Amino acid sequence: MWVADMDFLSPPAVVEALKERAEHGVFGYTFAPEELGRVIVERMAALYRWKIEPEWIVWLPGLVCGLNVVCRAIGKASDAVLTQRPIYPPFLSAPPNQSRILQTSAMVLNGNRWEIDLDDMRKAISPSTRLYLLCNPHNPCGRIF
Asked: From edge to edge, which strands make up the β-sheet containing 101-110?
C-alpha cells in the first residue's frame, strides 16, 4: 500500500495559498527569503545551542539532490554510507550514485511502532562507514524520531 498527500483532499488554506501563488504565472525555483536564514540560525541556537552563520546554510531545491550532495561531500569514493530499510528509495540510490558503498540495517516493527534495530545497526557499521542517513520523519514508516 502507498499513502501520499495526493490521496486526500487538501486543506482550504493550502488550496488558497496555491491559487494565490499560481496567479503570477512564473513557476521556476525561487530564492529563500533572507529572513529564513535568520530564523534557522535562531532556531538552531535555541534548540541545540549551535552557533551558525546564515552564510553557512546551503539551499538546495529538494531532498533527492540533497542526499546526493551529502553523499559526495562526506568521505571519498569507496567509503560507506549507512541507512535503514525500509526507506524512501533515493536514500538507497544516492550512495552508489556517488561511488559510495551502501550499507543498510533493518528497522523492526514492534507492535504498531517502527524502531531502529540498534544491534543490527552496530553490525552494519564498518571501518569504512563515514555517513549515516536518517529519514526523519521516516518515509514510508511514518515514524518521527
From this structure: 113-116, 101-110, 80-85, 129-132
What share of the chain in percent tops pLDDT 90?
74
Cα(128)–Cα(101) distance, integer angstroms: 9
Residue 83: CB partners within 8 Å, gap ≥ 6? 91, 92, 102, 103, 104, 132, 133, 134, 135
Model-level pTM greater than 0.90? no
3-state SS, residue 64: helix
90-97 and 63-73 helices cross at what angle (nearest 10)? 40
Share of the chain above pLDDT 70, in %: 94
